[in-house]
Amino acid sequence: MPSYKAPLRDTRFLMNEVFDFESHYKTLPNGEEATPDMVEAILSEMAKLCENTVAPLYQSGDEEGCRLENGQVFTPKGYPEAYNEFVAGGWQGLSHPVEYGGQGLPMSLGLIKHEMLGTANWSFAMYPGLSLGAMNTIQMHGTDEQKETYLTKLTEGTWAGTMCLTEPQCGTDLGQVKTKAEPQDGGAYKITGTKIFISSGDHDLTENIVHIVLARLPDAPAGTRGISLFIVPKYLPGQIGEDNGVSCGALEKKMGIKASATCVMNFDQATGFLIGPPNQGLECMFTFMNSARVGTAIQGVAHAERAYQASLPYAKERRSMRALSGKKDPEQVADALIHHGDVRRMLLKQKAYAEGGRAMAYFTAMYADHMIAGMLENDQKKYDKWDSELGFLTPILKGFLTEKGLEAANEAMQVFGGHGYIKEHGIEQIARDARIATLYEGTTGIQALDLLGRKVLLTSRGKCVRSFSRNLVDFGRQNLKDARLRPYAWKLLKIAAEWNYLTTRIMLAATKDRDIVSTASYDYLMYSGYAMMAYFWALQAATARDKLENGGNEPAEFYKAKLATAEFYFDRLLPAAKGHADAALKPTRSTMQMNAEHFSFDYE
């Protein structure tokens, strides 16, 4: 089983040399304590926890899985102890308010922490990760009393949180939610219904679990306008261990992330409390969902990194045939796999997606910092601005990076050949675990519709694309005269123009044929992902070039490797964007013309 090593050099390169997080933190009301020494201590200590405690449970947790006994879910051996160590270090409240027991540091540090934790062991990271969404929702929409009651315990990590959306009859279409909320004397509600696919719905890591539940009030309007949001704890505060009508009915039997408890949750007249205004639960829940989607985007980075860390040493050690350009290891019976061009293609693809995706995620984390700053400063205009910017980036990161994380895991299996398909080397687990990332928090198709239909066409009429693509134009103009960076500059200028042209063409076509929003959305999202990653690889290349000439924190070989990977991305991966652009503009007829009854003539 491959071990995990935190990619601290790449993290420091992005934080210190590409994005200048030190200056960024000085602009934030909660950034004063995020000094270089503090940031370095956080990175180093989290790396130790992940490498020494969390990562060793990755394979054993998968083999053992969770179990349900007498209504209680038990996590695999070692998980409670690892979670207690995580809590003792104060990691859960790293980026949450000091008044509720947190450390009050910028959200970006929490996301970077989550990347390390998730790469080490995504199943384990799911437990504290789901709590973060609950914490953000209560912080944004809860009353002072709710914050004091629930946020303090969640920040400590002694309580955990979940989000309960999906029901047997509905997934993405939440307008079909049937769970009921009946008002009671004293302001409480009785919640009745069944939720499925609830990650961390029940476990033995904390003394209580706080469920954030979508439900309907008795006279609520139909559809999404009639959904409210409720806090429904497993045990009522002050009544730990006493039944509150919340129970786990079953554990889902899953393809991957088996050490993460995915539960069928039953609410039988459970006592709950309204959070946010009545019938505006979906709007409040989006706080939770956006937090979860950014976290899921990081899963794509995590699996690409995990796959790369596994396949790289194997490619250096495993020997097969001779390189086409001549013997590379003449003293050996055959050359190492890494000397074969196609194996290098697969390794570089994994490296490009892991490091390019990490740059995208860290940049997005800075947007999240600004959004939180608006909230802390009670500046609604500032909050709305950055929330809008973040809303555009989120579906691209979630959709594109999880697809590429899965692709990287599959490439790792190809590097291993048949050895990747058996359990011994752990590659098949990475592939199984990566598969879910493209599904939960909205499938890739749902992210694509959210991006193109809601964010680009409906909400901004293409303004969000014009806004972000200015980054590409600025880079192009600034570096077009630099012979070493001109290839990147020229391509970014072309991509910026093509991205906006593609947006305008679809917008115009949609006025006559609304189906194009659906038929084009996946290709549009993938194009957007390739375009965005190209910008961040160009940034890394420019930084690496500067550090090679003027000196940096890393050895010259590190920066040369960055330049080589950037060149590979632009030469070998970015061309796929053109195919997505072409496909997105094709008429809907080829997709929509066949009668539904004619998809098969052999079975009903």
TrEMBL record:
Residues 40-157 form the Acyl-CoA dehydrogenase/oxidase N-terminal domain. Residues 163-269 form the Acyl-CoA oxidase/dehydrogenase middle domain. Residues 480-594 form the Acetyl-CoA dehydrogenase-like C-terminal domain. Residues 279-450 form the Acyl-CoA dehydrogenase/oxidase C-terminal domain. It comes from the Bacteria. The keyword Nucleotide-binding does not apply. InterPro entries: Acyl-CoA_dh-like_C_dom, Acyl-CoA_Oxase/DH_mid-dom, Acyl-CoA_Oxase/DH_mid-dom_sf, AcylCo_DH-like_C, AcylCo_DH/oxidase_C, AcylCoA_DH/ox_N, AcylCoA_DH/ox_N_sf, AcylCoA_DH/oxidase_NM_dom_sf. Keywords: FAD, Flavoprotein, Oxidoreductase. Its cofactor is FAD. Belongs to the acyl-CoA dehydrogenase family. PANTHER family: ACYL-COA DEHYDROGENASE, BROAD-SPECIFICITY LINEAR ACYL-COA DEHYDROGENASE FADE5. This is Acyl-CoA dehydrogenase. It comes from Alloalcanivorax balearicus MACL04. The lineage of its organism: Bacteria, Pseudomonadati, Pseudomonadota, Gammaproteobacteria, Oceanospirillales.
